[in-house]
Amino acid sequence: MLHNLDRLKTFYHIYSGKSIVAAAERLHVSQSAVSQSLQKLEEEIKTPLFIRLHKKIIPTAAGEKLFSIVESFMSDLDTCLNELEHSKEVPSGILRIGSPPEFGKTYLSLITAQFMSQYPEVTFSLELGHPGKLLPMLREGKIDFILLDEFLAKKPYSGNLDIFHFMPVAHEGIILTCSKEYYDKHIKDDLSFSSLSKQDYISYTADNLVVNSWFKHHFSKSAAKFHYVMTVNDHEAVVAAVLNHIGLGVVSSHLVRKELESGRMIKIAAPDTEIINTISLVQLLDKIPTIAEKLFAKFLIDKILSISDEYDQK
Length: 314
Known about the structure:
GO terms for molecular function: DNA-binding transcription factor activity; transcription cis-regulatory region binding. This protein is α/β, with parallel strands linked by helices and 314 residues long.
């Protein structure tokens, strides 16, 4: 392995200009410095790269082969540096966004499409998942920022949350609900823990985190051994299962407002104050955002607030 990559840069300019003099002018160094750099490179790889004919130099077969590799690297490097410089002035490049599955499936594709219509040089990589998956990816720099349910964030994540910056963008009520038919048949106004623990439940994940968190908050008791009859990683599917009388499910109250007002769904009255979940935009605390990240963060927050306003007006 080469110990000094600057010598490859010198070789590149010698080959490109077919002259040590031209390389010295291009690099703003003396001709002797260029000659010494080339000599040390040839000594290091134990192969002559040029044939010296008086004041003329002719590449050897080894020189031709090395240049074909170095030229590609230098070209790619110039392109990359130009793109990085361009991205400081014009929103461009790829944005890597993490989101809860429900929000990502329902809204994120539309929001990113609207943003790209304004800034066509920006592309997106979307990662849908829950906090236990997304926070480590954010910590390791694999995602630029994520939307996070703070209600769930601390439960599955054992790392240090102090390295993140949380920017609240929306709030939602988290409720336990069932269909009216299920309520009248199985619960009958008995909202004790003993009664609720005997019911059927619909969960988002195999670890039943959401349901368990609801019961931990309201009863300080675990729901781990409850009877889970369905696991489905989609908010709309949970709502559909509830409306089909399969069991109880934990949902966002604003997403089922019509069903609650019509009486098709019944909110299980909790013995404690309602859980208010904060949806936050999360970034690494010390990261300096690009212009594209700054613009999209503001764009995303504005869109989320407008979505919340639409639900409030319905």
